[in-house]
Specification:
Elements lengths: L7 H26 L2 E2 H10 L6 H13 L3 E6 L7 E6 L1 H31 L1
Antiparallel strand pairs: 1-3, 2-3
Helix pairs in contact: 1-3, 1-4, 2-3
Length: 121
């Protein structure tokens, strides 16, 4: 029997959808570490191998701010342009704790399903 090739486009699409679903969690967790401006946040996520662009991040930041999970402030510098910095709110910390728990529960569930299949091989 010939070995079938992996449908790479299906895997790539699944990977994109998975990242979309957890990106707000990743952004909120990154902002929890320290107050940060958007460009630095993009770089931090890229360093974690989460490829994002400003057109992806800024709408997420706006949604998180609209939900009172983060707050922002403008900072001016002697050189360069002003930057908008984001910090997590107390509500954001509570929501992040809940999201972390949901993520653990979900990944444990999926891992248990995947392990069952591996054992049967």
């Amino acid at each position: 029997m010939a070995k079938k090739s992996i449908p790479q486009e299906l895997i790539e699409n699944w990977n994109r959808q998975l990242r979309k679903g957890i990106l707000e969690l990743a952004v909120l967790a990154s902002i929890e570490e320290e107050e940060i401006h958007g460009y630095a946040l993009i770089n931090r996520l890229k360093e974690s191998n989460i490829s994002v662009t400003s057109s992806t991040i800024y709408p997420i930041l706006q949604r998180l701010a609209d939900s009172n999970l983060i707050e922002s402030r403008w900072a001016e510098f002697d050189q360069g342009h002003p930057r908008k910095y984001y910090a997590i709110t107390d509500t954001g910390r509570l929501v992040l704790a809940g999201l972390r728990e949901e993520w653990r529960n979900f990944t444990n569930l999926i891992n248990s399903i995947l392990k069952k299949k591996e054992v049967k091989k």
